[in-house]
Every structure is written in C-alpha cells, then in structure tokens.
Specification:
Belongs to the aTrm56 family. By secondary structure, the protein is of the alpha/beta class. It is built from six helices and nine strands, in the order βαβαβαβαβαβαβββ. It has a six-stranded parallel β-sheet, sandwiched between helices. It starts with 6 loop residues before the first strand and ends with a strand. The protein binds S-adenosylmethionine.
Amino acid sequence: MHDDSEVAVLRLGHRPGRDDRMTTHVGLTARALGADRVVFPDNAGQSLETVADITERFGGPFAAELTGSPQGLIRNWTGRVVHLTMYGERVQDVEDEIRTAHGSDGEALLLVVGSEKVPFDVYEEADWNVGVTNQPHSEVAGLAVFLDRLFEGRELEQEWDDADRRVIPMETGKRVESADSDANSERE
Ligand SMILES: C[S@@+](CC[C@H](N)C(=O)[O-])C[C@H]1O[C@@H](n2cnc3c(N)ncnc32)[C@H](O)[C@@H]1O
C-alpha cells in the first residue's frame, strides 16, 4: 500500500457493454482498498476514464492503465502473481505466505481477477491460485476481501493526496468538503 513493493490488479477479460460496471468497480475497489495500480484490457477505455476521473477528484496515488496483452503482463511480471479464483487454495491458508512475500521479501504482487472463463495457462503461471471461499461470487468481492486480508485492515486508514474533495464521515446525511475547505452538506 504505497510502500516500496507495488500491488497491481489485472482485470483479465472485458466484454464491452456487459462488463462495463464490473470492470469499473474492479478499478474503484483496487483504488479504495490500497492497491497502487489497476490494468484493464485495452477494450475497457471507458472504465479507465471513470477510474481516472475518481482519482482526480478523490485523490491518489493510484494509476489506471490499459494493456493489449494481459497475459503478457502476467508472463513478464517480475514479482509474484496471485490469481483469485473459486477453485484456488483457501485465502485463510495462504494469506500469511503471500503477506510475507510482499511485506518482508519486498515482492511486487500482481492480483489477477477474471470476467468470463479464465484460460488454464493463468492457473499454471500464478504463484498462488486463491479462493475467497470456494463458492462462486464476484471479482469485486474477491478482490475486496483479499486486499483487506493482505493489508490486515491498514488500508482503511489510508490518506489521499491531491484530492479536490473529501467526504466527512457522518452519522446521518452527506457532507463533502472541497480542498479549500468550503463545506457542502446535504440531508438525505
Ligand atoms: C464471475 S467469475 C467467473 C469465473 C469463470 N467461470 C472461470 O471459470 O474462471 C469472475 C471472476 O470472479 C472471481 N471470483 C469469483 N468467485 C471467486 C471466489 N470464490 N474466490 C476468488 N475469486 C472469485 C475470479 O477472479 C473470477 O475469474
């Protein structure tokens, strides 16, 4: 989480139209929960724009990029690769090992989430295939739980740089403060 070794998220596969919201949410979840970068397939430019816009307004650091070769990124990754899949080893059994590789050994992590069927090569190329439960659910949910386990909750405390607005937590209502501290409040 914005320390020496990077955590990047790769969205593998994107079906324009059908996957637009899900791909965007992979990026927003990666950003909000402590990853440094998200990489989308190059047909997901609309999702990239949304994530970049949120980062500009609500702060960073966070990078969003496109790639023409998602599997090339996996093959050429110099750190370790974690593929999130319902068929993988239980997250609670491998999280310590992954945290040690990242935190103590300084390995950059590439977290891979799929959309439609993930090619078997990815299972073979991954250092860990990890299940957040072995039940089918969602790439967004799997990513969120995995990042929270990886960072042991520290990502909830992160500060945001260069935001032009900030949400003030409230018991009731919505309050957003601009960077120059003009406050706007709204009751639901
Ligand atoms: C809707 S699923 C489709 C998976 C696809 N049927 C396949 O064969 O890989 C899309 C993505 O959600 C993630 N996912 C779904 N359930 C998961 C689980 N229990 N643990 C971790 N990731 C999961 C995986 O990254 C998966 O590629």
